Amino acid sequence: MSLAEQVSHLPSGDGIFVIADAAVIKKIAGDAASEEAEYKDFVTKTGFDYRRDMDRLVAVIGEPTSYYVITGRFDWPKISAYVGSCVKGLCSMPASQEGKWISLMQLGSGAVAISVSPKQLAVGEMEAVRKPLVEWSEVPFLIKGRGRHFSRWGLSGEELVEVKLAGDALELKAGSVTKRLPLGKIFE
Q1: Interacting residues of 54 by C-beta distance below 8 A, sequence separation 6+
Q2: 161 shares a domain with 122
Q3: What pTM, to 2 d.p., does this model score?
């Protein structure tokens, strides 16, 4: 699936728009030894490890719902068996975050759509409301969104924020304001 096709599957909505290819994902991900037991169990049962098997991620990360389209190497029968609750190709399971569900569906042999939402089968709504959130380009890494979505990193407001990878840090730029965030601090 091309990047344009991946982006075309994202719904319109308010949130942070992300493109990240495999090399960037590996750089940001850090060491596999630090992963939680739940993720290690997922890797064991499905054979899918994003560090090894994901080629590219595009996403609209919002609140209360986030959508992801991932390309790579997937064993869909193992993934759907892990989830356990599938109807007509749509699968769902409770998320670790209370009141949210993870829902997913296969978009082809090398692509999966995922949603994290209060709605149990939100991923099924993606096709009905598709429309890319922001302009994008063929790049290995891109993050765009309104400042209010970056409040955990000291930005706010409606001004557009663009994020670029700068060595071992993310550089967040909103108008004349620039912030650097070390990759190790992203998820803190």
Answers
A1: 22, 25, 70, 71, 72
A2: no
A3: 0.83
